[in-house]
Structures
1.
Amino acid sequence: MKTVIVGGGAGGIGAAGAARAADRSGEVVVYTEFEDAAYSPCGIPYVHGKEIPDFERLFLAGKEAYVEAGIDIHYSTRVTGIDVGRRVVTVEGEGEGEVGWDRLILATGFDYADPGVPGSDLEGLYYVKNIRRAMEWDKVLDQTKVAVVVEASPLGLEMVTALPHRGIETHLIDPHPWALAEAADPDIVGPVEDSWAEMGVKMHFNTALEAFLDDGRGHVRGVRTSGGELPADLVVICTKKVPRNDLAAAAGIQIGSTGGIVVDERMATSVSGVYAAGDCIEVPHGVANIPLQGLSGSHAYAQGKVAGTNAGGGRRSYQPVYVPWGMVAGKWMIGGVAFGETLAAALGIPHVVGVAEGISRARYYPDNKTLRVKLLAEPGSLRLIGAQMVGGEGIKERADFLAMAVKIGATLTDLANLENVYSPPLGALNEPIALAAQNALAGLNRPGD
Ligand SMILES: Cc1cc2nc3c(=O)[nH]c(=O)nc-3n(C[C@H](O)[C@H](O)[C@H](O)COP(=O)(O)OP(=O)(O)OC[C@H]3O[C@@H](n4cnc5c(N)ncnc54)[C@H](O)[C@@H]3O)c2cc1C
């Protein structure tokens, strides 16, 4: 059986490995527009910020590893059409022409949303994605004095943190009142914004981008915003991720309300024999049961594994998501799971809240960091429906744990009574999650729950 995969990102590479494992005698062919596959784009902002010394270590495997694994990757090759009736794709580049398939997996990923303002064809606008382009842009950063980052998305937060490390005067513009406003609450990002201010970042919130300005030679010289003009040698576009669904839509494959390809739990699309995975699809939210699109590399990889296994004749399912997230921003780590207060309120989801400030290690142990934990629960049942955190360390582990707690229906009472590790270098006597749950119960006059 021949499985053709469109996309060499986390979704496509996860699918290729799984398809190969599920069908050892089958053929697995991957097409990617890029010169490389299987590198971690997630590391690019940290090379720009000089925390990671070079781009080479972002590659997960050399090209020969895929050849040896029996995965036939065609680089710099574009799929321009899909005929689901005849089961062929049309390919431009290496191996040009029509290529047949028995199973097709779409892992075409995302594009950054078009800022939709004049000047978007100017030089000096950086969309962070392809590693070869990132290597070229990294040299540009050496010459850059002033940069504007457009939108405080997760990538925006990373780039705003990275650029000052290069001595670049960094401006952030965002139409919302605070950073990462669609995911994080203001009390969670407040310390991050304070630390950016200490790093010299100029923040322009409630500010809309109106145009990229031409220096007269086709290069950007700045941006016009609703708050006035800002000069810039470089503009980093960090708008939200939109699914690349054009191929699927043209082939008549069902597209959902978010623009993502609709799949079932086996990652099968509306067309028999066609699967999809990664940022080009939508999947249901475990709490709200609404479709979500544009999650993370770890989601894309896991979805690719499910799609590849099923395409190869195996059987695996993907479950609804609870979206644990976490990142370094400024001098802090922030993170959470499912809903924060702002999002829950915006969606009209009733909730009660418990907040606590705690510490990451024993009080007397060096380098002990503060941690703020906020828990959201359903009134009445007290089932956990979300969490938000900011602290100096330990955010990732808590976000993963809390995602599982939401998934299995843990309540504030369960969390108020959780058993925790107390070891001076690893954790404090009082776990901040338990403190937040205890505070919530005390606020509800249900401390005995
Ligand atoms: C700068 C950056 C930082 C990130 N940081 C994180 C992080 O910290 N944590 C995290 O979990 N995730 C992170 N991500 C991952 C990211 O947000 C996505 O979730 C992930 O890249 C999605 O993988 P994907 O395979 O679905 O799509 P993509 O990575 O978008 O890959 C799409 C692939 O499809 C190919 N393609 C598309 N159309 C065609 C076509 N017609 N023909 C041929 N090839 C085609 C492209 O060449 C590419 O290989 C980061 C991404 C970037 C760019």
2.
Amino acid sequence: MKQNEAGDVIYRKNYTAYPWNVKHLDLHFDIGAETTTVHAQMEFQQKNDDHGPQDIVLNGSDLQLVSLKLNDRILGKDDYIVDGEQLTIRDAPAKSVLKTEVLIHPAANTALEGLYLSGEFLLTQCEAQGFRKITWFPDRPDVMTTYRVTLEADKSEFPVLLSNGNETNRGDLPDQRHWVSWEDPFPKPAYLFALVAGDLALVQDHFTTRSGRVVTLKIYVEAENLDRCEHAMESLINAMRWDEDRFDLEYDLDVYHIIATNDFNMGAMENKSLNIFNSKYVLARPDTATDVDYQGIEGVIGHEYFHNWTGNRVTCQDWFQLTLKEGLTVFRDEEFSADMQSRAVKRIQVIRDLRIRQFPEDDGPMAHPIRPDQYVEINNFYTATVYQKGAAIIRMYHTLLGESGFQKGMKLYFARHDGQAVSCDDFLAAMEDANNTSLERFARWYSQSGTPQVTVTDHYDATARTYTLTLEQSTPRTSDQLEKQPLVLPFELALLTAAGDELPLQLEGEAGNAATSRLLIVEDARQEYIFTNIPEAPVPSLFRDFSAPVKIYYDYSKQQLATLIKHDSDAYVRWDAAQRMSANAILEQCQRRADGLVMQLDADLVEAFRGVLSDQQADPALLAEAITLPDEDYLADQMKVVDVDGIHAARLFIRKGLAVGLETLFADHYAGLNDGAAYQKSALAMARRSLKNICLSYLLETESGEALATSQIQFSDNMTDTLAAIRGLIFIDSTQADTALSDFERKWIDDTLVMDKWFIMQAIKPGLNTVNKVRDLMQHPAFSIKNPNKVRALIGVFAMLNPTGFHAADGSGYKFHADRVIELDPINPQIAARMAAAFNRWKRYDEGRKVLMKAELQRISSVAMLSGDVTEIVAKALR
Ligand SMILES: [Zn+2]
């Protein structure tokens, strides 16, 4: 079990460089599932030769030490000290060769860090600090070295033996054993080390880089999954080409491996040339994976590939700089997906994700800047803030500097730092120097937590024909930080007439300016802009393309929102206006319900939706986004005290009202889109399916829906349509739902990835009975508490995506969930900590629920031997 016994806080300001260079690392693994022997040989050289003998400090965890030799002398108990996860060798000479032998036990490793067993094969996960579970080594990202790895194993049990870099040699040994050697010429930190050993099947292709290097591409999966790799391979080839075209970056080795595993704590891992993936992000066939899965695979394959430069060739000095590689690489994968699919739809998905996942983080006990100043357990900082907000901040560089300025900065960044472990300051400096500009104030985004709020007010002077726009920004205090400063906000703006035309934007004192969309830079707490020659009171189109990750407050009238929904050329503003109108309507009804009044349907909302649905020109995927009502979590975020049941009831009421009011339109769309054409993977086909299935979800609120859904299941040739229809039937509590679920179960019982969907569909069902259903499903043979995908599908979905179930007023959801956190902690503390975070925002609920949640948090915190991971989350929540 992973323990951070001391629960020590680690501070960014205490960073000191490692005093030794590690010139080279030789690893030899004698592979066995129960016990693996690891021999390591590392050459240490003091950075400062004049220093004289000096201690060497190494990290290790759960290692059974067999022997330790320094310059060929066997070290006795008096020559070194082991203290927790540190081993200190006293007074080592300026040049020292250290040889170690340790035993590790992969099959007993349920934390899925270090070397572990997945099904029939062995694999590693080392980020952030898993390498210390493999052998003693300075396990920190700023210690980079070259690796030579030899893997030795039984030939029939482990025919495939992989590590980073290029294969250099292989041979047979007596007793049906064999060995393979790998060499990675690029120095790397230990967190990028990987090995895989087992009986895996292979899909192979190749890619020729722009400079003519032929790269062999290999995807390894369990044999039964060989027919589900095509999309992953195509995505990899697209990603390699895209990185050349857009970023001028080429791949640098002769081989690139992807391995799919069902047992993985995260999405995927960018180990140099040996990416290890959660099978969810590799395996897809139209009948087993949804369109969302296909898009997820493309995005994650791209993400891990792009890390080869942003993360691997240039890595992080310490873990506080995690966003240096993650924010930048998420930005790159977002851009990749935008270039592959619809840019507008991708952008909306990214913005929605940021609002639902990251904004609440800023508002809770885990608030931290994208570059945190302290942590107890780094695994708890793989957060939406570091990743998604980090990417939003990289996007602002891009907005401020433009594509060519941004690319100049990237070029300088690589020219300066290739092969180094650097900090976010180095990235910022490269952007500054390449563009000959100062980003000093912009740098505050790295150190300030919280979501800035921008309040916009305006005044139109009909006589002077001027329009004054005032922006006031402030960032509310967060749990980690009281003082806040104004931030640099790129502010993209347009002004629309009531008829929907964009006006030329001429600021007071400027000569003629015909631009109708402008980028302004807000830097101060309060800033005023006066536009001249404005013929009528305009409708402001604010922060177009979501040009800064802020909460925008402007008191739009319904009429103004209708204008934006109908006419704005900016897809984000259009979508956001529809979301605002829906959110306002739902929250109004929520309030009426709380006041004991009858809920009423807003006729303007129906008309706005009618307008959207009647737009024949629009991308169907954008229409689908526009008519999707805001999530319950997003609505909860708009309330001072969350009314769980009120939000659910009001959202349902509005949904029903829209369904009945626009039934003909939904039905026409559905009929047109449900044309019986065979499945296609194209972006257009996906867009059509997304609109079709949103229409179906509304129609399910009417008489005709049940029959449509049942027939859709019967004739479906793809998982997207099947799943949408079954979920719809479950949601309306149809009698057909049980049949559909048992048919689904019968068909897919042996398919672990598809069965995750079966669990999700049931865990997400609103209502008080779901907790019992979830508890029963934990006994299902396809469920395992040791498998993170299963835990996320059943337990995670229930706690995070089922507000009426989890927040049941009697506390049954809380109690069930706390029990799971306690059960999971000794098995897999990383996953337990993720689950514990479901309680993070307990203070936002009514008194009754607050008391219940707090009691469960206290119950978790009182468990003996609680991991550092969970302790940090729970302690912060209770503070
Ligand atoms: Zn990443």
3.
Amino acid sequence: MIKLTFPDGQVREYSADIQVIDVAKSISEGLARNVISASFNGVAVETTTTLTTDGTLKFYTWNDKEGKKAFWHSSSHVMAQALEELYSGIKLTIGPAIDNGFYYDVDFGDTKIIEADFKKIEDRMLAIAREKHTFSMRSVSKKDALALYQNNEFKTELIQNLEDGSITFCDHSTFSDLCRGGHIPNTEIIKAVKILNVAGAYWRGDEKNKQLTRVYGISFPKQKDLTEYLELLEEAKRRDHRKLGKELDLFTFSKRVGQGLPLWLPKGAALREQLESFLKKAQKKAGYEQVVTPHIGQKELYVCSGHYEKYGADSFQPIHTPAEGEEFLLKPMNCPHHCEIYNARPWSYKDLPKRYAEFGTVYRYEQSGELHGLTRVRGFTQDDAHIFCTPDQLDEEFKKVIDLVLYVFGSLGFENFTAQISLRDQENRSKYIGSDENWEKAENAIIKAATEKGLSTVVEYGEAAFYGPKLDFMVKDALGRSWQLGTIQVDYNLPERFELTYKGSDNEMHRPIMIHRAPFGSMERFIAILLEHTAGNFPLWLMPNQVAILTLSEKYEKYAKKVFNLLEINEIRSLIDDRNETIGKKIREAELNKYPYLLILGDEEERNGTVSVRVKGQDGKTNQTLSIESFIEFIKTEIKKTEKEFNV
Ligand SMILES: [Zn+2]
Ligand SMILES: [Zn+2]
């Protein structure tokens, strides 16, 4: 008999030759119907795997991340089989499941796969799926594995790096592939498939290697799920920040300036400035002090911080000067600079915490293939701050940072998020810097702060940085996609490396603890996510232009200027469109620009000192005529409704 432990803590006994699926059946028929994969002692197993030892068994359905992974991993085998049947002589390389679907990197030789080919691949996959093949795993010796792939240099390379005795293949239908396992019970549950896209991908991601074709696909247990997914993709395309950024005149890129280096246009710059002053205001309330540091620093600075070791080889190379041996680096992080600001004078425990904030621009070299709009760039600005505090202050400081992050999310309409607490790997404590006692303190501070603030949390062991535990905010956007925004990290390492000190109440010198935090993360990435989340309809308080003043003809230019000035005095941001165009065209363009309020000015308005107000979303109707003063009162109230108070 073997003892199996289940996630709810229950322990049950089974005979020592039971299959995973039969264990599910013993619990309930419903469970057995829905189970599509399982893990035993944390390792993915087949539903047909025979269990022979005690251990922990977890079942997964389509609704679990692991279930989807098995589903898509299995679908990738089916796609590979379809591709081999359709294109003889191709070489398969690797084909993992990803967050949304799966891909396979294939060497197609001279054949080029285009969109017109997708349908026949999908049809072949579905035909294979309907044949209800089961997946079975078998061990293969290294020698036999190499023989099986003697014409495939990619698989050969993979196998050469594996240990003899650990190599397994998966078979289904007439197809086999090198595979570690973790499949669905049979192919028939794959009811809908879609080839999404093909792209070039270098073998092992290295530009020096051969370029392969990456075929992306996705599959579902129901046709309806696929339809919904494709609709979501369409909506995501409409909301793509690169498209909206162009339409709304926010940012651009120039080949001459360089890849991955965004140029902010006046409207985009206004939006950034709005976000920055919003955060600066809150930070001031929370006791932060603004600092400013240069974009470069001596190489030694980053050698001291350890960043050179980490980023040096793969990032921008040192800048040389006419002085022999002098080398500077573009800063990859603001932290070392802030450490030196702290070091500029001695501190006593009574002076702490010190909270230094800076919208600091940093530079990291990303491979050109990795660059993507504003989400992956080579130069970006962090809403960075570093808090230097005593161990006793850590609790309180951590809670305050959480308050600030929650305020930021709330003000920008991100309501749906979880906090991931990343702690040490308990088994492997030696790989972390700092005393056990300090780590315990910091980990407890994070857990306590997150609990007290009522955050919905997940704890991940082993996910902490080597220098300290952290709290990351995972935000769901309007399309249900998850983004990591906002991070708070405790750091014992940099205070050590920079020999930061303060005099304690015992008159002895002590090391402060450093907290790194950035609620937006990077301004570039944050704005990209905000654009896609809101489709460009930012909260009214943030809109770079809250009002557009449209004249019926050039005659009303003067009156328009007067309205503009009155709005400006009242801190309402507006612009005038007095071009010699039809009002219909001006309205259409203003709506494309997503200006929330349009004021239309003509004869009557000028004569009566009024404005005709048109609100976005109210189809084609000028909804009301107001005096300028009443409009100002009205919009002020509307702006207020979208603003949140930050209470310290
Ligand atoms: Zn597999
Ligand atoms: Zn930092």
